[in-house]
Amino acid sequence: MKNSRNIKKFLKIVFEKNKLIASIAFVIMLVISMLDLSIPQVTRLILDDAIINNKTNLLIKLVLLYAIISIFSALFTVILEYIYSKMKKRASIKLKIRLLKHLSKLSGEYYTNIKTGNMLSIIENDIFIVENFGAEILFSLIVDGLTACIALFFLVRMQSDLLLIVITLQVMLTFIQSKFTKVIAQKTEEVRKDSGNISNIVQEYVSNIMNVIISKSSFNFFKRYIKQEKGLINKCIKLDMIISSNISASMILSSLITICIYGYGGLKIIKGNMTIGELIAFQQYTGMLIGPCINIIRSNTRIQQSLVSINRIFSILDEPIIINQDNNSSIIKEDFSGNITFDNVVFSYDEDRILDNINIEFEKGKLTALVGTSGCGKSTIVNLLFRLWDIDEGKIMIDNIDIKDYNLKSLRKNISIVTQDLLLFDDSILNNLTIGNKNISKKFVKDVCNRVDLYDFINGLPNGFDTIIGEKGVKLSGGQKQRVAIARAIISNSSIIVFDEATSALDNISQKKITENISDLLKNKTVIVIAHRLSTIKNADKIYVIDKGRVIESGNHEELILNESTYYSLVNEQKQELALS
Ligand SMILES: Nc1ncnc2c1ncn2[C@@H]1O[C@H](COP(=O)(O)OP(=O)(O)OP(=O)(O)O)[C@@H](O)[C@H]1O
Ligand SMILES: [Mg+2]
């Protein structure tokens, strides 16, 4: 049920916008099959008419006809391959894009539990496997079926008793192959799963190599890796052996069929019940019966293998989009002012309540800070505003409109979050700052860089703003990365900017300087700052102190100090630490 539904969906993707080219391929395939089917007739005429009756002219004509048929058949095959190749690539790129796009629409919960290696294995390996499934295999099945039927028709007309022997052997062949097919599909799935697990381990190792070395965990990695690889080797060998046994068994039975044709057919010729031409034509038609039948059976193996991959691909594509993208599609207006209200918000990631009746206001043009011990739920508040997760109870509103009623894309476009770990692209520093947006003036970018103390550094790079950074290029220090992140958020010009521990890698003096420099650019925005270092948020218009998912105090610095409660003790603790150090 699930299989056929997924195949249908997959074929829809393959044939979408490819109907004309697919029809051409189908016609070409039919023509090739007809050309091939005519060859035994020409052979029979060459042997039984031209040669036996010494007709040289006829012989030349027939040989020429044979050559023309073969050339056209070969030519059409090349054209067919071209069409298939084009269709295959188009479909697989389409699938990849669909997968990657769908991934961007899923929820924080999905992203938290995602297994990168497995995902990569689906995007690379499974899509590669299903590339060969689709028009090619489908059309081959139809044309093979047709070819086999026509060949059978000729065979019945020629020698039905000889055909009976051939068919008996053929049935045996089919039976054995179908048994093998099931086992192969099952083993392939096991191998595919294990490969995914290995990819996960390798991906974890490679993408964190520096941390792996620092945490001295490479031994642990190799132990896990080798154990998995050993298991996989055994499974792969078993699978290869099953596949080759399958091929050998069918080869033996095929030879048996040839032996029967020459043995029994030869006897019939000796007795005068058959001509040599008929024998050769019979053998050729037998090939045209058995070949397609084997193809159909082999296709079944490939279909089973592809099915595993198709199901894996759709396991992602069918992942429901929990975060509704477009509730009633009221796109955020240009004059979006950005007053945010958390109204009795309740939220849990799993079972445990993380936010318990939170009431917070973030006002436009004001700097609001969230403080509290690690794990109290500060970043969670930001995740909810960005709708990585949807809340369980209560309401989050911007300008008195529930955020669920905004178009998700516009909502996110209007919020910039600066976190500790910045995503750097393997691209120029300019594109890293503008995220590829060409409409941003370089003057503005330079100004922002100046304010966050990046301009001199960038100017000193070999190609200035065009220097490649990221994976292949210049490496940045922790502090420089944070400056890029801050600059990027300001350049994006979102109405709401969140700094979540955005200056933790900067020293006090740099941080103060940058804060002062950018303050006028943030004047009309809703600014949310999360910081452990309380000196960062001293000047905030409002500070919320969060504890165990609840707001326990709020006010500005002076008010909270006068309160002599949690904030007051946090400030004192930090002062003491500073004094001690
Ligand atoms: N993706 C997630 N899935 C499940 N639980 C999570 C997830 N992210 C965070 N949590 C849990 O939610 C709680 C709040 O996490 P959150 O990241 O909001 O804390 P925080 O206040 O930002 O802490 P920190 O100051 O250390 O950054 C923590 O107990 C954490 O274990
Ligand atoms: Mg946090």
TrEMBL record:
Primary localization: membrane
Domain spans labelled ABC transmembrane type-1: 24-305
Bilayer-spanning residue ranges: 20-39, 59-84, 137-156, 162-180, 247-265
Every ABC transporter domain range: 340-573
Compartments where located: Cell membrane
Parts forming coiled coils: none
Keyword ATP-binding: yes
Record's bilayer topology term: Multi-pass membrane protein
CDD domains linked to this entry: ABC_6TM_exporters
Cellular component per GO, a single term: plasma membrane
PROSITE patterns the record matches: ABC_TM1F (PS50929), ABC_TRANSPORTER_1 (PS00211), ABC_TRANSPORTER_2 (PS50893)
Superkingdom field: Bacteria
Keywords attached to this entry: ATP-binding, Membrane, Nucleotide-binding, Transmembrane, Transmembrane helix
GO molecular function per UniProt: ABC-type oligopeptide transporter activity; ATP binding; ATP hydrolysis activity
Keyword Nucleus among UniProt keywords: no
InterPro entries associated with the record: AAA+_ATPase, ABC1_TM_dom, ABC1_TM_sf, ABC_transporter-like_ATP-bd, ABC_transporter-like_CS, P-loop_NTPase, Type_1_exporter
PANTHER family assigned to the protein according to its UniProt record, in alphabetical order: ATP-BINDING CASSETTE SUB-FAMILY B MEMBER 10, MITOCHONDRIAL, ATP-DEPENDENT PERMEASE MDL1, MITOCHONDRIAL
Official protein name in the record: ATP-binding cassette, subfamily B, MsbA
UniProt source species: Asaccharospora irregularis DSM 2635
